[in-house]
Amino acid sequence: MSEHSLRYIDNGSFFTRIDALSKLLWVVLVILVTFQLTDNSARLVMLGLLFFIMIFLARIPFKSVWQAMPIILIMGTLLFFVHLFSTPSTSYINIAGFTLGQQGFDKGLQYFLRITIMVLASFILIWTTDIRDLMVGLVSIGMPYRYAFTVFMALRFLPVVQQEVDAVKAAHAIRGRAARSPLQHRFRLWQRYMFTVIVNGLRKAENTALAIESRGFGAYPDRTYTKQFHWTKTGIALILFFILFAIALLLWERSLI
Amino acid sequence: MTTEIKSIGEPLVRFEQVTYKHYDKPAPALSDVNLTVQRGSFTLLVGPSGSGKSTLCMLLNGIIPQILGGKLTGTVTVEGQDISKVPVQELAKSTGMLFQDPEWMFATLKVEDEIAFGPENLRRDPMDILESVEQSLNYVGMQHLRNNLVWALSGGQTQKLGLASVIAMQTPLIVLDEPTANLDPATTHSVHQLILRLRDEGKTVILVTKDLDEFMAEADDIILLAEGRVVAQGSPRDVITQHGNKMLELGVWLPEPTEIGLRLKASGQFNKSVPITVAEAVKDFADLKFHASKPNEKLVTDSETLIHAENIEFAYGNKFKALRSVSFDIKQGEIVAIVGQNGAGKSTLSKLLVGLLKPTAGEMTMFGQSAKRWKVQDLANQIALVFQNPEHQFLCDTVREELEYSLLAQGIDDQAVVNQRVEDMLARLDITDTADSHPFSLSAGAKRRLGVATMLIGGSAKLLIVDEPTYGQDRRLTERLMLLINNLRREGITILMITHDMRLVDTHIDRAIVMANGEKIFDGSPDILFQSPELVERASLRTTTLRRLVDGLRGLGITVPDGLNTVDDFIGAMQ
């Protein structure tokens, strides 16, 4: 059994049982609302909601969350520092002995929270959705199946790429370190991970493309499905609840200003 | 020379003067191939690595030339359709193909969705598809796994799902390209039984395999390829009789009883037809006489203990215990195999030995120091691991740089010494002419040898671990790799192999550690292991055809000495 973090977790949770399109629509709404928010307190509330959904409604194991954290935090932290140092500030704050620009800090935090919310919402979708249901759902609302399948394949191969990186990392670790400087060594390894993962990834992607074409994929403009897409009541409830939550959050935020 | 083939029905497949050159390759992969495959027949496609077997398979569903390009001359037809003109997706109705690693063929997440994927593409009625899914699941015995995620399947289940997906397409032709290359012997046997059922049900089956012993008596045809040319096509008996020695010379694995028959016939000691099954060999060799028992010549080691493990355990997360209370010693100069079913804990054990994982319980001492204290990179100077996919290990842009890297990693940076050692190693492994090539561009055999070289060039390694040495290698390449490994052992390096290849275990190994469900169930000589049917079954192993031959002869009351582990041993023991 593989133990990779970014893949569908079929645990029968409340969120897993919601139809794929409602969850996709929910992610889109989360992103749209996040861009409407202007205050970091409101963004923190939104982040809190996502954690609530992740832990209680989706029952994502802590290990999967922990393994995915670096992806979320690296992007958020990078954006935080870019804005911290590139935003001109007129007032200053002191945090743990460091003097930082107030406006830069706020903007950095704003981007950190935005990216974290967007990535986390997408991860919840990946963790709780059989991507095939998403593909069938997209086709049911008129998307040509070849395009819908492209989305599907991209998500299907995320864990595979993770697996490949792990295998290459393990193999490289036992080769020892040739460079004198640890940084130089690390750089070389990263360069090589990228090369090996890309070469093997392309080779495997080519094999997959050959395999699915030889199973008739793309033979006709449409195809049949043994499982049909159905909107679920819980999905509609999720959307309605989220719209109400978003309105309340926006009103609360405006009242703070 | 081409022998007459048995006619079963109309030709389903026809190759006429087919020559094919891959894009950007100077030499053709197939040259002037003419052959037919009859409807309802069972054909074995054999040949050494790089002989064009996979290329020939990919012509059968149009992947070549329609997707992979290249230059094709001549005509290939399947059910009368020209594969260069009828689209690949349309040919999917005629040819079902199972690739070597079916995991890459999976397009969905769940078992039953995967089986339905192909028929859905062909716009079959959903109710019919569901019926096909049901039948295919029954066929491979995976009804209970229908809702499982595809990545949670074992190696054997993955292959069976691949087969079920092909069966559900309901194509008249089924092409199987080494479907059991990485499976344990018992699972391989069960997949072989499924393949034979397909033949019984009237499918036309073309199978690429190196495990010929279960199919020799069942196949209608063997097609022997070498350097892209058809060397022979005909019934197994005819091809073996006329081309058996050529097959051995080319590096094709033949069942041991067949090999014995060929060699005895060549030396004039045997004048019957060459046996192609164990049962035939037992009958044909019944009048052979053997010398008395010979002493076991294998090394008995009583040397320094390199690794001592006592009741070690390892668990992935909280749920799955991959190792349970495993104890063993590895002594200097031994050659040891770790064998057992897929998922028995073999790979976990090898990762513990190189320090990539640490035991979650128990005590392991490596080179006199607790495993917990070793760092992977320090341990790398003592233990060398050659991965099943050596590409994962490569870090540089040329073969020469790969070897230099390993020396630098061990602190050897005197340029004169580095150059000398690299040249010596290149010459020793016969890869000097590829010194400036990219490691990824080497042949499968050369990649394996480079994998060994990168790990040993520093000269300080005391233990070499090789993961599946015969995977993807023909007989000649395997023998070359084993020659290298045996030479290393003579130089004092301890060898540990993880393998499913029982012939390799019988031929080269002093001691086998047998794993089943995370536990060590046996630790001792392969001779003792293979005498216990219960152990063999529990660990999903299978005895070699040579052992089955010896057992058969003994069953007839013939005295056959112990320790006949190779064809050479068997012939050498004859009076």
Write the layout of secondary structure elements.
The complex is a heterodimer of chains A (257) and B (575).
Chain A: H1 14-17, H2 20-36, H3 40-57, H4 62-86, E1 92-95, E2 98-101, H5 102-128, H6 131-140, H7 145-156, H8 158-173, H9 182-213, H10 233-256
Antiparallel strand pairs in A: 1-2
Chain B: E1 11-21, E2 30-38, E3 42-46, H1 53-59, H2 63-66, E4 71-78, E5 81-82, H3 88-91, E6 95-98, H4 111-121, H5 126-140, H6 155-168, E7 173-177, H7 185-200, E8 204-208, E9 221-226, E10 229-234, H8 236-250, H9 256-266, H10 278-284, E11 305-316, E12 320-331, E13 335-340, H11 346-353, E14 361-366, E15 369-370, H12 376-379, E16 383-386, H13 399-409, H14 415-428, H15 444-456, E17 463-467, H16 475-490, E18 494-498, H17 502-508, E19 511-516, E20 519-524, H18 526-530, H19 533-538, H20 545-555, H21 567-572
Parallel strand pairs in B: 3-8, 3-9, 6-7, 7-8, 13-18, 13-19, 16-17, 17-18
Antiparallel strand pairs in B: 1-2, 1-4, 4-5, 9-10, 11-12, 11-14, 14-15, 19-20
Helix pairs in contact in B: 4-5, 4-6, 5-6, 8-9, 10-20, 13-14, 13-15
Description:
The complex is a heterodimer of chains A (257) and B (575). Chain A has 257 residues and is mainly alpha-helical. Helices cover 72% and strands 3% of the residues of chain A. In chain A, strands 1-2 form a two-stranded antiparallel sheet. The longest helix of chain A is centred in the last third of the chain and has 32 residues, at 182-213. Chain B folds into four domains: 1-94 and 171-251, P-loop containing nucleotide triphosphate hydrolases (Rossmann fold, 3-Layer(aba) Sandwich), CATH 3.40.50; 98-170, no CATH class; 260-296 and 549-572, no CATH class; 305-543, P-loop containing nucleotide triphosphate hydrolases (Rossmann fold), CATH 3.40.50. In chain B, the strands form four sheets. A six-stranded mixed β-sheet of chain B has the order 6-7-8-3-9-10, with helices on both faces. Chain B has a six-stranded mixed β-sheet with strand order 16-17-18-13-19-20, with helices on both faces. In chain B, helix 4 crosses helix 5. Residues 1-7 of chain B have low confidence and may be disordered. At the A-B interface, helix 8 and helix 9 of A face helix 3, helix 4, helix 5, helix 12 and strand 16 of B.
